[in-house]
């Protein structure tokens, strides 16, 4: 017999809880979701709303995408790529700021000859 989407989500909820080594009572303490309600979700007798699913995803340290669909959409990899690009751009900005400071020192006559030569490429 084919399982329904709700049954599949219930199984994911239960396996995520077990993988985190949490009892239903511990989940209740962390989320304030009653244990009888949690049992209804895990046995596919009722469907949790989005806010509840979000709480459970955070508690179980899984993605909301995975809880709902069973698939991971790797939004985290896009975040990692974006953070890496921000660090790269920040490094460029820092290097340019250092170069501008050196040029200002040369213009103001406060730098010694070695800094001036380094800045001018001599």
TrEMBL record:
GO terms for molecular function: DNA binding. Residues 13-67 form the HTH cro/C1-type domain. InterPro entries: Cro/C1-type_HTH, Lambda_DNA-bd_dom_sf. SUPFAM superfamilies: lambda repressor-like DNA-binding domains. Coiled coil: none annotated. SMART domains: HTH_XRE. This is Helix-turn-helix domain-containing protein. It comes from Paenibacillus dendrobii. The lineage of its organism: Bacteria, Bacillati, Bacillota, Bacilli, Bacillales.
């Amino acid at each position: 017999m084919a399982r329904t989407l709700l049954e599949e989500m219930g199984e994911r909820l239960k396996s995520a809880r077990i993988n985190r080594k949490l009892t239903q009572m511990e989940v209740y303490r962390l989320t304030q979701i009653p244990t009888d309600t949690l049992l209804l979700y895990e046995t596919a007798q009722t469907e949790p709303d989005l806010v509840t699913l979000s709480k459970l995803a955070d508690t179980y340290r899984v993605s909301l995408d995975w809880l709902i669909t069973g698939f991971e959409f790797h939004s985290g990899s896009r975040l990692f790529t974006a953070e890496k690009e921000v660090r790269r751009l920040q490094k460029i900005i820092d290097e340019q700021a250092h170069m501008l400071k050196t040029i200002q020192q040369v213009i103001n006559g406060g730098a010694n000859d070695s800094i001036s030569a380094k800045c001018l490429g001599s």
